[in-house]
Each structure stands twice: as structure tokens, then as C-alpha cells.
Amino acid sequence: MRDILSPNAIIADLSAATKKDVLQEIARRAAELTGQDAHAIFNMLWEREKLGTTGVGQGLAITHGRLPDLPEVQGFFARLTEPVAFESVDNAPVDLVFLLLAPESAGADHLHALATVSRLLRDQALCAKLRSAPDEMAIYRILTETPSVAAA
């Protein structure tokens, strides 16, 4: 996880009213850290949502996509101040969002990173720790100090 996530890629208290707001805010942070265009990131995420929700249930969304000029796979995490309707598979609102961006040429690296994130965040005890963490550094430590789970 340390390979794809940095402490400044964490938003501990994202305030948003809708799924669109969440994606716009996390796209803005991703743009700041990657040098990519925020509108391009948001548009890619929004198009991905049109294919099917990335709300995977239990208050979690794992949104992802590929960008042409991104040099490497990068992750971003946001904890929402209030849960937001996300059309999740279990119809529960989302309060934890992980964004995974990959270069268009990433191939298996993108899928491996996505599987790793998914396996890590399936742990409900870990998600409870993320929800109660006091700040960005605590969230970063929770996400990166957990023993990595081998991806399929």
C-alpha cells in the first residue's frame, strides 16, 4: 500500500452532499498531487460510475480508472464527514472512499492494486479503525501498516 499511497493523499474529513460532490473533491485532490487535470479525472470517474456503481457495500466505495499521462499507479483515500448516497450494491450510504488511478498502460499492475485495496478494505475491523482515526496521519498508518494481503 505504501507504494501507491502517500500521507498527503488522505482526506480525513471530506464534506460533501452528493456522490458527484465526493468525486469532484477527491478528483481535485488527485489533480493537485498528480499534476493531472481535475476535470479529466472527475469525468473519467463519472463515466466509470455510469457503467455501474463503485459503492461496494458496508459504507465503502472503491472508485478507479486509467489516465493517459499518469506515470504510476496512485491511490487516494477520503473519509466523509457524513455518509452520502452512492447507489451502493447494498443501498447503504458511503463514508469511506478509495480512489485508485493507473496509467492507461498499467495492465496487470492496475488490477493487482485494485485487488489489494479491495481485500484490505473488506476487513470491517480495519474500516472501523479508519472511521474513528483522529487525523490523516492516523488513517495513513492504518492503511499502510496493515500486513499486505496477497492479491490473486
Layout of secondary structure:
Layout: E1 10-14, H1 19-34, H2 38-51, E2 55-57, E3 60-67, E4 74-84, E5 94-103, H3 108-121, H4 124-132, H5 136-145
Parallel strand pairs: 1-4, 3-5
Antiparallel strand pairs: 2-3, 4-5
Helix pairs in contact: 1-2
The overall pLDDT, averaged over residues, is: 93
State the major sheet: 5 strands, mixed
CATH architecture descriptor name: 3-Layer(aba) Sandwich
Q: Poorly predicted ranges (pLDDT <50, ≥5 residues)?
A: none
**N- and C-termini, Cα separation:** 16 Å
Structure summary, number of beta strands: 5
**What is the third-level CATH name, the topology?**
Mannitol-specific EII, Chain A
The ordered H/E elements are EHHEEEEHHH
CATH superfamily: Mannitol-specific EII, Chain A
Shape: globular
The structural domain count equals: 1
Output the radius of gyration: 14 Å
How much helicity do the residues have?
40-55%
- Beta-strand proportion: 15-25%
Highest CATH level, the class: Alpha Beta
The number of distinct helices, counting runs of at least 4 residues, comes to 5
Overall SS class: alpha/beta
The spatial strand order of the largest sheet comes to 1-4-5-3-2
